[in-house]
Structure formats: structure tokens, C-alpha cells
Amino acid sequence: MTPPISAAPSPATVHAVAAPLTTSRFFTGISIRSRHAVRNSRLLQIALIFAFWLLGEAIVRMVHVPLPGGIIGMAIVFALLATHRISLHSMRRGAQWYLAEMLLFFVPAVLAVLNHSELFGMLGVKVLVVILGSTASVIAVTALIMDVFVRFRSRHDVV
Fold first, then answer.
1. What's 119's DSSP letter?
2. Helix (H, G, I), strand (E, B), or coil: what is residue 66?
3. DSSP per residue over 43-56, as a string?
4. What's the pLDDT at 145?
């Protein structure tokens, strides 16, 4: 004999089996899973940094801003980091990889210099002086700003 079929299941059974999946719960689950995946995957972090660069390039082309797309993308990343919309952990490993492989990104520039033999003469010396001077000035200004910041921080006990 088969057990009798009840006309209505109990409310607890309905709630446990057919709990409605709201869109906010759905996107929260995706958001948590995606954040976890990005934090644990260097490849996804590299892709995220590349996506910010592409976003910066798209903004430059649409708005016709006279800045490189990489600078705009970096400003977007900085704004998101400053407002805590993304965490530092979600980009750290990818950024470390980019920094470790930086020489790879300069190989095309070196090959371009080899194609222009005039850069090995007096013009090259002038370019080298400008590059070294600008690098030294950036280092000096950065050191001065950091010195001012450290002194301000120690005087005002800012953590």
C-alpha cells in the first residue's frame, strides 16, 4: 500500500525546499565568490589590472582627454582603493607580477631605439641627459614629500 498523499505540504517543507532566490541574494553570492576568486588568482588580478587599463583607454578615446589611458586607468584604481570599493589584496599579486616582469614591457622600446642609429650620437646624449635629469628630479621630489609626510605624521601622532 502507498502512503496517503497530503493535499498541502507543511509550511516548513515549502520554505526549506522552495526558498525564493532574490536578486540581491543571487548577486551577493556571485560577488562573494568573485571576490574570493580574484584574491586567490594571480591571473584574474592581472586581467583586472588590464581591464582598468582598457577602461582608461576607452575613456580617453570617448572624452578626448590629452592623457594616456594607463594614467586614467591608474586614477580609477586609486579612487576605488581610496574609497575601499576594492581591496588591496584583490590586486597585490597581479601588480607584483607586472612589476617583476617590467623589463619584458620595455623590450619593444629597446628594439625601436636600435632601429634609430641617430640616437647613438649627440641626439642620444641629449635624450639621455633629459631622461636622467627627469628621473633624478622625480626621485628628489618624492623623497622630499615623503620626508614632509613622515615629519607631519610624527608630530601629530597620525597612524
1. G
2. coil
3. HHHHHHHHHHHHHH
4. 94
